[in-house]
């Protein structure tokens, strides 16, 4: 992987003031910032950049009174739920699995995530304003365990944001829209259960909105022996006349290759942007590949260039990672780390001869990288 001229952490958990959190004053238990990471990225009308940062606010001591606890939104307030310790597997600090799931995998979280707008300088390297008054937090039972991993696209002058909303009802994709990327209108659920990493293309194709999606499941059918593809999660496509009602595209999108385990699991990263790479014009998309290893696997960022008129066709790509986790970046906050080998890229803007790329580093902090266009 190449070294880039600008590559640093710009926002970390100690920079969050939890006295201004949506949860402040609701719980008779101490919370802390488990992570401030996976930021959506867009350019504001004033020229500054905006990161919409996922704040995972966690219980300092989730285990007490012989129970493990989770935070839940409940009709305008936040409450704690407790499960007997003997019923839960608490090996992962981010979550716990309930042993008696009736044949299903049942999970609860030790944190609740909400979204914090952080206004940055035009180069993405300095914090200008933290907009606590514009935080995006749960407003209904469909997201009672929080909102995760926002992505922002600007299409036809309007900002569109997708988020993953978490609840026992469903694990859905929710849509918001805005005129200014600061005041958001909830548009509803657009993709139902277990469809993550929905990325709206930053422009229309054939008069329609397009998006990448990533359905999940516990069962995948095998490709024929000798196929270049590996069965498993892949990045699919969908289109919409209004950005609210989506139809899956018949042709497959980006699929994992059989000759590597580095992308055995994959999903979308940045909303595709229309740009020129090495003399070819198309939709640049950065996505993550996960190599199975350890607790969560090794997350790396890859890139592909999709045909400008038919985004199901890849016209250029690289099997070498564009970004990998960098322990040197997190060394100053190493005492806060609970997961390693994870970079999760979630935003991109064009800036002259380079791209400004936003990522979550180690599920902990926000990383900004300036990647020269000549690198692709």
From TrEMBL:
Keywords: Glycosidase, Glycosyltransferase, Hydrolase, Transferase. The lineage of its organism: Bacteria, Pseudomonadati, Pseudomonadota, Alphaproteobacteria, Sphingomonadales. This is Glycosidase. Belongs to the glycosyl hydrolase 130 family. It holds the Pfam family Glyco_hydro_130. GO terms for molecular function: hydrolase activity, acting on glycosyl bonds. Gene3D superfamilies: Glycosyl hydrolase domain, family 43. It comes from the Bacteria. The keyword Hydrolase applies. SUPFAM superfamilies: Arabinanase/levansucrase/invertase.
